[in-house]
Amino acid sequence: MKVFNESRLIDEANELMKEGKFNEAIKRFNYILHINPNSRGAIIGKEMAMGLRDTITIVKAMQIPEKAWDLVDMADMTEGKKAIKLLDKAISIAPKWDRAWGRKGDKLALMKKYDQAIICLDKALELNPRFSNAWIMKGLILKDTKKYEQAILCFDKALEFDPGDFDTENYRKETLELMRST
């Protein structure tokens, strides 16, 4: 019988990150979180691995001006129309930055402006088809608007890039249950 050694698995995942094997590290963290959903080390490690993977992708693709980063950071701490204005400024500085488009979609969804949110998320996904958080947000919007089949496709796509993500798997299960009950 194999014993679950969380500390050893976290160390292995961290080594994978150091080697630049971010997707493998994310899978290892997901495995830990499947067994222990409250593992702080795995939660933080997974976020770091995803962030590093995505940041390296962005940096390789293009240099984002610091002003655009500052505007997105400010928008993250703001709500409503003010956040949208900040994100619009960031997008005008870096129009090919998937994160700015994704954040704008996020903020619009919180304002229940789903059609506009989907447009922004689609733009983010056009720029970076591997942007799993954009797939998740789009799936949640489609689920909330009762477009269950489309939502499932979005969750499947997110799981393709972030396999075993516990939250995404749950969103997918919830959506399937809603589909069956209608």
Topology, pairings included?
Layout: H1 6-18, H2 22-35, H3 40-61, H4 66-76, H5 80-93, H6 98-110, H7 114-127, H8 132-144, H9 148-161, H10 166-181
Helix pairs in contact: 1-2, 1-3, 2-3, 4-5, 5-6, 6-7, 6-8, 7-8, 8-9, 9-10
Please explain how this structure is put together.
This protein is mainly alpha-helical and 182 residues long. Helices cover 79% and strands 0% of the residues. It contains ten helices and no strands. The N and C termini lie far apart (43 Å).
Helix segment count?
10
Mean pLDDT across all residues, rounded?
89
Largest sheet: none
The Rg value, from CA coordinates, equals 17 Å
Return the CATH topology of the domain at 1-61: Serine Threonine Protein Phosphatase 5, Tetratricopeptide repeat
- Give start-end ranges of low-pLDDT stretches: none
* Overall form: globular
What structural class is derived from the secondary structure elements? mainly alpha
Structure summary:
This protein has 182 residues and is mostly helical. It is built from ten helices and no strands. It has helices at residues 6-18, 22-35, 40-61, 66-76, 80-93, 98-110, 114-127, 132-144, 148-161, 166-181.
Keywords for this entry:
79% helix, globular, 182 residues, single chain, Serine Threonine Protein Phosphatase 5, Tetratricopeptide repeat, mainly alpha
